[in-house]
């Protein structure tokens, strides 16, 4: 393998905002083929593997990799800005525009095999014998007297506000909050482990990075094991949080 190939791949990744990967890691991520595919295909392969990796793995990046400065976590700092681009990975995402119980209802409806269409709940028939002539599964509508939780979620998705838990290459975490709607940020569209580039100049207020399209670029990717565990545990986490919030509100009312 030409020693120039890992250098060229790294240069391309850096031009796209990625921290500089170690040449040894790039070489290990390249396909073991002779002859090698063209350079654009090699760059795409390494990029895909990088987006699927845990950024905190010590063997990936040249050190020191761009990371959050230590003072960003101080809630007493009214506002500061990132002095350079920082690549992060998503550890958690929450739609704070909707109550926990609404989100619980959504997930339970999905678990029952229900979808929504307008003011109807569509129950998907799991019987394979009920396919239509085109091979598509038939759905039986059950009309309700009000829009379902899923329909409300779809209608309000453009106006949703999300809070993310972000982690940099050093393992430091920081919450991110949408200041302006960022396309592709959303529960069900953003994966756990997905990579985001926080661009130089992004504002950090009271220990929270403010997300907006000009300074927040979703790069893609997913850490499969993290995402699967997050999805499987989300319903129980929401129920627990909703129950705690309800208990706290009840105690405050009695007080």
UniProtKB/TrEMBL annotation:
This is Uncharacterized protein. It comes from Hypoxylon rubiginosum.
């Amino acid at each position: 393998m030409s020693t120039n190939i890992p250098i060229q791949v790294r240069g391309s990744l850096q031009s796209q905002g990625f921290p500089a990967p170690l040449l040894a890691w790039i070489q290990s991520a390249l396909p073991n083929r002779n002859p090698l595919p063209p350079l654009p295909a090699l760059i795409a392969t390494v990029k895909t593997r990088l987006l699927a990796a845990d950024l905190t793995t010590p063997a990936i990046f040249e050190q020191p990799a761009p990371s959050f400065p230590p003072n960003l976590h101080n809630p007493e700092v009214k506002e500061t800005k990132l002095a350079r681009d920082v690549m992060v990975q998503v550890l958690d995402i929450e739609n704070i525009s909707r109550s926990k119980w609404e989100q619980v209802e959504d997930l339970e409806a999905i678990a029952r095999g229900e979808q929504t269409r307008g003011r109807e709940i569509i129950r998907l028939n799991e019987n394979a014998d009920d396919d239509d002539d085109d091979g598509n599964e038939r759905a039986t509508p059950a009309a309700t007297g009000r829009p379902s939780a899923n329909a409300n979620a779809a209608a309000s998705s453009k106006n949703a506000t999300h809070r993310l838990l972000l982690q940099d290459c050093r393992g430091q975490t920081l919450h991110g909050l949408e200041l302006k709607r960022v396309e592709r940020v959303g529960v069900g569209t953003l994966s756990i482990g997905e990579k985001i580039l926080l661009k130089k100049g992004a504002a950090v207020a009271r220990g929270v990075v403010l997300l907006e399209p000009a300074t927040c670029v979703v790069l893609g990717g997913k850490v499969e094991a993290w995402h699967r565990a997050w999805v499987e545990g989300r319903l129980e986490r929401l129920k627990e949080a909703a129950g705690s919030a309800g208990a706290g509100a009840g105690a405050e009312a009695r007080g």
